[in-house]
Amino acid sequence: MSIRVYHTDRKVLLAEGQKIMSCSDGTKYYMKVFAVNSVLAGQSALKVAEAAGLCRSTVSGWVKTVDEHGFEALRDKPRLGRVSRLSKEQYHEIDSILQAEPGEYGYKVWSAKALSNLISQRYGVTIGDRQCLRILHKLDFARIRPQTFPSKGYEHTEEREAFKKNGRDK
Q1: pLDDT in tens, 12-30
Q2: Are the C-beta atoms of residues 25 and 34 closer than 8 Å to each other?
Q3: Long-range contacts of residues 45-54, Cβ cutoff 8 Å, at least 24 apart
Q4: How far apart are CA 49 and CA 63, in angstroms?
Q5: Nearest-5° angle of CA 10, CA 14, CA 17?
């Protein structure tokens, strides 16, 4: 019996294969069915679990589920969350608004509080500051605090030193 010599590390290939098998609901279902079929064909749940990168108890649980409820019970159930209070069109509009200067809409900076106020006025929907932070993150905006004076660069060294000594009010 010849032993295969791999060009790529076997662990890397195994991890990549496990990632592919767990990426979509369809492939997850077929992986579960394959694992259960392997156990039903006589392989140990431990060996199947090791090959798939799972826990033995997970594979054993799938076998028990199939035994009691059939293979359809292995399919993922749809996960429904709370329905968004804003439509996709409103999200797109908010995204374009955030691209503009905040002064055009009466704000100094775009913050969670400012966005919450804007959404309340424009759409009549009350959304908390924390949720507005999530919206900002979802729209790929970074949380950056504005600076009143440049922190880098050497062009205004004396002014910066005076700013450090005297504070913001001078």
Answers
A1: 777 777 677 666 667 788 8
A2: no
A3: 52/18, 52/21, 53/14, 53/15, 53/18
A4: 12
A5: 140
Domain ranges of the chain: 10-74, 88-138
Name the residue with tokens 């649980």: 61
Residue whose C-alpha is closest to residue 115's, from 45, 106, 71 = 106
Q: Measuring CA to CA, which residue among 120, 85, 115, 113 is closest to residue 97?
A: 115
Helix/strand/coil for 102: helix
Identity of the residue numbered 134: R
Residue showing tokens 């969350």 = 81
Structure-token pair, residue 66: 């199939």
Torsion of CA 5, 7, 10, 15, to 10 degrees: -160
Show the beta-strand stretches assigned E in 44-157.
Answer: none
Higher pLDDT, 163 or 139: 139
